[in-house]
Write a structure and sequence with these properties.
Layout (H helix, E strand, L loop, with lengths): L1 H6 L2 E3 L3 E3 L5 E5 L17 E6 L1 H8 L1 E3 L1 E7 L5 E7 L6 E7 L4 E7 L5 E7 L2 E6 L4 E5 L7
Length: 144
């Protein structure tokens, strides 16, 4: 289901970290989003419990993916992709294998679209369109 959506340029309209095996973890991103005056701040990112991916898609629907960047990981193990969707507050990040297969997809309703990234060792720093920053350790078990 998730791989099929991704291949069609779509993603679930529900916050979560999605895997190609159709499992998901709750994803909590509390902003700051587009309508907050404190742009340029860190974006909190917290993973929660597993959830029913099929039910989330059934209840929330799907939205189109609007890719802003694709960047090769420094170790050559794959790619990171990021962007948003039609509504200005929605952002996404995805990790792709070296063959461009989907490893995971993070959909965030309040993050704003991600427009770029840079590396600091095994850490990736993503920037959204309001210059807010999301820092992720790409060696964390949930993000490998």
């Amino acid at each position: 289901m998730i791989e099929r959506l991704w291949a069609a340029g779509e993603m679930p309209f529900h916050d979560g970290l999605y895997r190609p095996d159709d499992t998901g973890l709750e994803l909590h991103v509390a902003g700051p989003g587009a309508y907050r005056p404190d742009a340029g701040q860190p974006i909190p990112f917290r993973l929660g419990e597993p959830f029913d991916v099929a039910r989330a898609i059934e209840e929330g629907g799907i939205i189109e993916v609007d890719t802003c960047f694709e960047t090769l990981l420094p170790d050559g193990s794959g790619w990171m992709s990021g962007g948003g969707s039609g509504m200005g507050n929605i952002g996404y990040l995805s990790r792709l294998g070296s063959d461009c297969s989907l490893r995971w997809l993070a959909v965030m309703f309040c993050s704003n679209p991600f427009v770029g990234m840079h590396h600091e060792g095994a850490t990736a720093v993503f920037t959204n369109d309001w210059k807010n920053r999301l820092t992720l350790d790409l060696t964390a078990p949930a993000l490998v």
